[in-house]
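Regression report. Comparing outputs from two consecutive submissions.

Submission 1:
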Amino acid sequence: MGRSQETSNKKEVKNKKDKKRKEKEKKRLIKKETGKKSSFDDMIAYVDEFGMLSSTPPDPKKKIEVEAEGIETSVTKNNPSQKPDYIRKGVVTFFNDSKGFGFIRDMESKQSVFVHANNLLEDIKENNIVTFEIGKGPKGTTALKVKLFRE
């Protein structure tokens, strides 16, 4: 006679699955006998005046009427005097002509900004005062449209 193909672990797993299936069937029968059906009202949730979820509907006495004409739905107009100045001023702290890159220290934020030779409008040297725009480069902020500052 040959040995059984089922190991003890396989038998345990099979018994657990059968037990779960039977329990699920019992629960289904009990639910069917009680006749309790879930309705939409059981699933609905309300939000109170504090933003918390609750199962009770809000009190109609606390209801506030809002006039539709009182709600403003328009786009705010930009004031040109409030626009930020994108053109910055700074000092060239380092520039290597042979490698084609350098750094500019921003006069406002004292931040060091990378500059590449491709972004130059004029030739620059160390200690020159320049104007530039800040842009996003592959490794951080980059100076764009760099040119010498003339008063």
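Submission 2:
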Amino acid sequence: MSLYFLCFILFCVGLYCLLRKRNIIKIIIGLGIIEYSVNMFLILIGYRTNGRAPIFARNQEISNMVDPLPQALCLTTIVIGLSITLLVVGLAVRIYEKYGTFDITKIRRLKG
């Protein structure tokens, strides 16, 4: 139960970075922290104590196997998270080229 709480704390740290920081790079790091906490939560959902790999064989019983679905979801979120991170970093580079700063408050003042 404490591991789920630690995932929640990590998610809250990432959400704090996403909502309260003014630098675009720090916002991107907060987005990455949120992604890692969600991946860790998915792995914890599928974990079983003394679990076996979900490989089917004729002489094995289907008992105490680890659930493979959260592992597949975690791999999918890693790929999607990487593409989102690359997109946001590309946008940050273009914003820096246009405005010369990563500070959101200065960019909002230049809007006109």
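Expected: both submissions complete independently.
Actual: both completed, but the second showed a warning that disappeared on reload.
Relevant detail on submission 2: Helices lie at 2-20, 24-46, 68-99, 104-110.
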